[in-house]
Design brief:
The chain contains 22 helices and 2 strands. The protein is mostly helical. Helix 4 packs antiparallel against helix 5.
Length: 493
């Protein structure tokens, strides 16, 4: 019945649901706000399931296309459509939102309706980013999604939340403004069209492509974030509430890589090849150097934040070596990192809710008082280190294999992250979980309750499913990756 407007339903249902959550009133009716938010997030996830079941995996073309005029004078349209890459990211978004709502059930006690509504609005806007096929519509969703995250960190964040929100906003806004300038330039070059399909066919000189590439690059590199524009991320993660950290790491970081796939590679293919060495160097620096920075952290959230930057270096590396295996590995890494990083931040949140500290030195011997939690966190730590059989292994392994076919030295350098990742992850796990009970606060800890056990179990199953049976994910993106590589290989000179 809704197949013709499936994407619109997935975008606007959580936004309308957020209004219903806000209508529940103040904190005296917080229980109702939580229930409505959970129902809306579950229904939104169910709405996205038919996108997968009805998706034609043999076609690389956009599917579930919707089109209607928006601002006719400028030929700006409400145009939607997805390929296999966008499909997996939409499913990840709707899935993680349910986890975030459940994880905040008892933790958030003030402004509950506003907190839940902010995540639902952000969910709709993020799905809009992955669905938009009009450049201005993409830009509107891209910018609008910053507002709820800004509020989430600024209202429910830690002591230095104002500093973190301003830094987050300024970094992302500057890059976004450069993207807008590039889109306006392309509008005139395409004889008045913002449709991505038209922008892909614009004839551009190499000089034009280089300037446009850098404008898009700065917008998307900040979001990933790539070295050296990564410094906002650890501050944002440390100050954000647990739910904010989960969405930031699991979904928002992937939007930068998605922007490369949708804009840089197909619109400026010659510049992408010309500057690929530059991107590869930055990616390798992120993989190795940022992993070493993670080793020096004493705050669990900061360590996981730097870990995210290192792992996202694999994504950009896989995209810019122009190898199909590496490209597919990069996309799988995006999805896998969404599950693993979200789970790691939730584990830190479970401990923080009990002891209100993220310092590793304040813990020790947690396994003695929280054995169930220790088992879950062990699995996620292993997945973060790339253990075979978990989702963390699949993407990194494909990227390394694909990169090896292009340049063995790149693969060898990238492969060091398997050592460094194990080092900083297991070092954190050992200090927090193992050993004798270090103090009375740890001694008084209670193991996870049924609510926490539920969302950790669900994430465990997804990490293992993707690690042991990656075929459904890879089959979904095969044709879409072929299409993107074909567009990025076309010479427009």
């Amino acid at each position: 019945m809704f197949e013709a407007n499936q994407l619109s339903l997935a975008i606007w249902l959580p936004i309308v649901g957020a209004i219903a959550v806000l209508a529940t009133g103040n904190d005296q009716r917080a229980g109702l706000a939580r229930i409505v938010a959970l129902l809306v997030s579950i229904v939104t996830f169910l709405v996205t399931i038919p996108l997968y079941t009805a998706f034609n995996k043999t076609s690389g073309d956009l599917q579930f296309i919707e089109h209607m005029p928006w601002i006719s004078a400028l030929d700006i349209n409400y145009s939607l459509g997805i390929d296999g890459i966008a499909l997996l990211l939409i499913l990840l978004t709707s899935f993680i939102t349910i986890i975030v709502v459940i994880s905040a059930w008892q933790v958030i006690q003030e402004k509950v309706a506003q907190y839940m509504a902010a995540f639902l609005i952000m969910e709709g806007l993020m799905i809009g980013v992955f669905s938009a096929t009009d450049a201005i519509l993409f830009y509107v969703f891209w910018e609008a999604m910053l507002i709820p995250m800004f509020l989430i960190i600024g209202i429910w964040g830690g002591p230095n939340r104002i500093y973190a929100t301003i830094k987050f906003f300024l970094y992302t806004l500057l890059g976004s403004l450069l993207m807008l300038v590039a889109l306006v330039y392309l509008y005139f070059k395409s004889n008045g069209s913002f449709a991505l399909a038209d922008l892909y066919t614009v004839k551009l000189t190499l000089t034009e492509q280089l300037w446009l590439f850098m404008a898009f690059f700065l917008a998307f590199a900040v979001k990933i974030p790539m070295f050296p524009v990564h410094t906002w991320l650890p501050d944002a993660h440390v100050e954000a509430p647990t739910g904010g950290s989960v969405v930031l790491a699991a979904i928002m970081l992937k939007m930068g890589a998605y922007g490369f796939i949708r804009f840089n590679l197909p619109i400026t293919p010659d510049a992408s090849h010309t500057l690929s060495g530059f991107i590869i160097v930055l990616s390798l620096i992120a993989i190795v150097y940022i992993a070493m920075v993670a080793l020096a952290q004493t705050d669990m959230k900061k360590l996981i934040a730097y870990s995210s930057i290192s792992h996202m270096g694999f994504v950009t590396l896989g995209l810019f070596v122009f190898n199909k295996m590496a490209f597919e590995g990069a996309v799988i890494q995006m999805i896998s990192h969404g599950f693993i990083s979200g789970a790691m931040f939730l584990c830190v949140g479970v401990l923080y809710d009990r002891m209100h500290t993220r310092k590793m030195s304040d813990y020790g011997g947690v396994a003695n008082t929280m054995p169930k939690f220790a088992a879950f966190m062990m699995l996620f730590a292993m997945a973060n280190a790339g253990l075979p059989g978990t989702s963390g292994f699949v993407g990194e392994f494909l990227v390394i294999l694909g990169v090896f076919q292009v340049n063995a030295w790149y693969a060898i350098i990238a492969g060091t992250t398997l050592i460094l990742g194990a080092a900083y992850t297991l070092w954190m796990y050992k200090r927090v979980i193992f050993g004798a009970v270090s103090n009375d606060n740890v001694k008084a800890l209670k193991d996870i309750n049924s609510r926490e056990g539920f969302f950790l179990l669900v994430l465990t199953l997804t990490v293992l499913l993707m690690g042991l049976w990656p075929a459904p994910f890879l089959d979904t993106i095969h044709s879409s990756v072929d299409r993107v590589l074909a567009l990025s290989a076309v010479t427009k000179l």
